[in-house]
Amino acid sequence: MSEKVEHQYGAEQIQVLDGLEHIRKRPGMYISSTDEKGLHHLVHEVVDNSIDEALAGYCTQIDVVINADGSCTVTDNGRGIPTGIHPKEGISTLEVVFTKVNAGGKFGGDSGYKVSSGLHGVGVKAVNALSEWLEAEVCQNGHIYKQVYNRGVKQRDVQIIGDTDKTGTRVTFMPDADIFETTEFKYDMLKARLKELAYLNKGLTITLEDKREGKERKDSFCFEGGIRSLVEELNQGKDTLFPQPVYFEETEGDSMCEVAIQYNDGYSEVIYSYANNVNTVDGGTHVEGLKLALTKVINDYGHRLNILKESERLTGEDVREGITAVVSVKLINAQFESQTKDKLNNSSIRPFVSRCATEHLSTFLEENPTVARELVLRCITAQKARDAARNARELTRRKGVLESATLPGKLADCSDRRPELCEIYIVEGDSAGGTAKQGRDRRFQAILPLRGKILNVEKVRMNRVLENEEIKAMITAFGCGILDDFDESKLRYDRIISMTDADVDGAHIRILLLTFLFRYMRPLIEHGHVYSAVPPLYKASLKGEPDVYLYSDEEQLKFIAEHQDKAKQIEFQRYKGLGEMSKEQLWDTTMSPATRTLRRVSMSDAVEADKMFSLLMGENPELRRQFITENAAMVDKNDTYGGM
């Protein structure tokens, strides 16, 4: 029996956190994290309020500015947050919006918005609570209203500070350094989301400007084609089956469905889905409706042309090979699977999207018989390749996490069986693999050596992928399956670490590995399981002093400058490969958790990442050459370990 803890436990021990205090106490409940991702989530929350004004038909321009002092300003030309006295709270509605949790205009019924990405009335309150200071300005009724907050606490009542004939809202906030691990906004992370929002709201202009010294930049986005333009950008440089995306937009009651589809000559399935402008990365009922329609329409057409026998039927995977599609729905009372809104659950959307897609796709195929026939034949080819891949797929599918008898022979596994504590190094070559096996900590570190460069999965179908011995070894070792069979709960290692030589060949092997993970196990990247190890370039030896490891040419020059008086006595060893290190050196520099550097591979913009993999690893050498020529000056010759 456990010993009793000698503490008081009565009514006075029960804490009630008023106002925004609970958000400051538990920020992760409201913005998912206090790292870089959580920081940028603050901007998204403010922008989403402006987007909701656009959805309501009142906002045409949104401006986001990273100010010189590091704060952020979001301005829109919507109606402006109401400033009158709230009938229930007895204070300005502006103050209610920024301080009262679960207060907002997005709860359906007679609310201010029919369609909104916000559900819980928390968004801007979280921004207010987690900011060192926040200023809210509203242009409305011929006046400019303003209120200032410090860490969620108002500094004065709402005041009129001027007159104007404009309408709209401006919010400026400084993230609280006591809350966040970093308060430095990254321009490219904001750019990715704002560009995405511009695609999803055709005709809406969104600008982003950075006013920080030395970082000045500005971009403006407006896409009259909406998600059609997004599909065209995704397929840039690819051979497409038909020149323009199939596009349709339908409304039923208070719900709206918008879809754009185009097939290319690749083998990947790319479907991006959104509900009320929220990126539903795990899909949901709207994606299910689109997939049902695709499978039905293409099968029906194949049977009608007698290309398919009555007994034959193409699967969903067959008809989606090479597809690039975007499905966006807007609806009232959107129901998501969790607070992170990764999956849409509204059951009524499935038949709505399916019905619309069936009607418009059927019409397209009827009006374009040559394209339709080619599409059906392509799907039949995909089916044959998939049948050939089935046996290979079964061989790579793990039966259970602990059944080590099915693990590849070249894998040196770790002894611990708790995935959250374990990591696997994917190592280039048998030589480096042998050293890594000798130098590792066998309790939690596994080693899987690869023989040469793995297959470029961007250029081949799945049956070819699963015939590759190195890829089969990785799939079996990871244990989580691929594509539709992927199950993160079966992942055998929390960290998957590529450890390759610090040269061009090593960088190529790493990008081949990342291409495979992105196309076949994307959640591993999205959920932060993939890393790159950073081995040293040099070992500097100086008599009477311990050896020093240097990771770039710049570090070498700095070391020489710091030891000018002994420069002639310094001996440098340039590591051409990991195999040149002893097991002790490899452990000290690259594998010991106490001294190593790992770079997590992140994916802040899935659309841009998709484009880059297609461009750099695809079939069009001219576009690849053009990209390299235009961007060579931006690349640090020693920084071959960057993520996406």
Quick overview of this protein structure:
The chain is α+β, with helices and mostly antiparallel strands and 644 residues long. 35% of the residues lie in helices and 20% in strands. The chain is built from 20 helices and 22 strands.
Describe this structure in words.
By secondary structure, the chain is an alpha+beta fold. The chain folds into 3 domains: 21-221, 2-Layer Sandwich (Heat Shock Protein 90); 227-393, Ribosomal Protein S5, domain 2, CATH 3.30.230.10; 399-535 and 599-634, 3-Layer(aba) Sandwich (Rossmann fold). The strands form 4 sheets. Strands 1, 2, 3, 4, 5, 6, 7, 8 and 9 form a 9-stranded mixed beta sheet that branches. It has a 5-stranded mixed beta sheet with strand order 10-11-14-12-13, with helices on both faces. A hairpin with a 2-residue loop joins strand 4 and strand 5 (153-154). Helix 3 packs across helix 5.
